[in-house]
Amino acid sequence: MSAPPAQAGALAADAAFHAHADEHPPEIHYSSGAEPATLGMLLFIISELMLFMAFFTAYFFIRVVSGAEWPPPGKEIPVDVAAVNTAILLSSSLTMHWALTGIRNENRRALKAGLVTTLALGATFLSIQINEYVHLGWAPHDNAQGSIFYGLTGLHGAHVLVGLMLLTFATIRSFRGHYSAKAHRGVEVPGIYWHFVDIMWIFVFSSLYLL
């Protein structure tokens, strides 16, 4: 027995729809309006921000509530060196932006130069920070101030190291011909993380070295 005309028409329309969908699948719709990789990085940054806030809370508790001297009596913090290091790290945000702008305009030379320069500046910042630890003259276990200073700057240094690893992968891929104006998520997502690291250092530097 043949199917009723209405049912037959519905089946034919359904078959045509699925055949068309197989040829041209619909574009993915993201309810958040952001790519999964970008959204994931932003959520990760929010969680890391809360971690930094825990250290800042301990720092201000020691200074404001306990009234402890900062730095500890008889100790010094090299503000001038840290200021130069801050300028180096903030410059790396500009070179990161240069790299991303370059690939968005199909300028592969700018992409490579920007990533390599960002890597060099980030590595310089980290090496100066380590050298500061070596010559600081006080350790994390000496007092509460030392624990907070090394804890907060060390936490940031660990984030710089992770950022350098991400940028290294992006740099290697850029020299292998990856990325284009339409596909550069591998540069954009590490760039978001790197800008976060730079912004956090402004707060770390202002709180620990200037206040």
Task: Describe this protein's structure.
The protein has one domain (35-210): Four Helix Bundle (Hemerythrin (Met), subunit A), CATH 1.20.120. It contains six helices and no strands. The chain has helices at residues 5-23, 36-65, 79-104, 108-135, 144-175, 185-210.
Report a brief summary of the structure:
By secondary structure, the chain is mainly α.
Write the SSE topology.
Elements: H1 5-23, H2 36-65, H3 79-104, H4 108-135, H5 144-175, H6 185-210
Helix pairs in contact: 2-5, 2-6, 3-4, 3-6, 4-5, 5-6
List the main descriptive attributes of the protein structure presented here.
6 helices, elongated, mainly alpha, single chain, membrane, 76% helix, Four Helix Bundle (Hemerythrin (Met), subunit A), 211 residues
- How many separate domains make up the residues? 1
| Count of strand segments | 0
Largest sheet properties: none
Q: Within the CATH hierarchy, at the fold level, what is the topology?
A: Four Helix Bundle (Hemerythrin (Met), subunit A)
CATH superfamily: Cytochrome c oxidase, subunit III, four-helix bundle
Percent range of helical residues: over 70%
Low-confidence parts, pLDDT < 50 over ≥5 residues? 28-32
